[in-house]
Amino acid sequence: MKYRRITNIEDPLFKQMHQLIQEIFPPEEVLELSLWKEPLEDPGIRVFVAVLNGKVVGATEYRYYEDFNVAMTDFTIIRKDGLGIGAFLAQKRLADLHSLALACGKKLHGMFAEIYDPYQVEQYEFGGVKSMNPYVRREVLSHLGYKRLDFSYVHPSWHNDGEAVSGLDLCFLVMDDSRDELNSSLIINFLKRYYSVLPNKPKSWGEMIQSLEEKDTIKLMPI
Prior knowledge:
This protein is of the alpha+beta class. It has one domain (61-221). The protein is built from 7 helices and 10 strands. It has helices at residues 12-24, 37-41, 85-103, 118-121, 134-144, 184-194, 203-213, and strands at 2-5, 45-52, 55-65, 70-78, 110-116, 146-149, 153-156, 164-174, 181-183, 217-221. Strand 4 (70-78), helix 3 (85-103) and strand 5 (110-116) form a beta-alpha-beta unit. It starts with a strand and ends with a strand.
């Protein structure tokens, strides 16, 4: 299995990856194909696919924020169970992020990730791939060391239509597992940066940010 970075919308592997995204995620989570051009060319956004026998069998997108010294996992996709794709992507991603932090003279602080709450979004099929089921994915994140940030989370729809996407938790992988809370200022600054590309934010997102601004720290809870 090969770990291949995609930086161009014309890359043949990109079309395979985008088709995979459409098969796995609900429409409000999928960026339209032509809108991928700039993100793929952005050196700060890292899009990799797992390639087996010339076919895309998995994908992950993530980014490292040097000023915050944290990363964000945008998505991880597995096409087929039983091939070790999830472990392959997680290991390659973390090694890459540690290298990026080290190149900046830092030790990676941690990594954010969004995860569906299966009790709220059980109706999604996620392409029929059992490994992509929210129950399984939450348990995998827990095994990797992620914890749930203890606040009600929403994010703007990637359709940029001002609608809120709910039914998710924002989680954080702490490299120092003795920590049980995160500074709310880090969460706020990260979310504002991450969703700055979507100008049409729902009212509930602004209310969430305002609520976070009233707190100094947010507890990290088991998933």
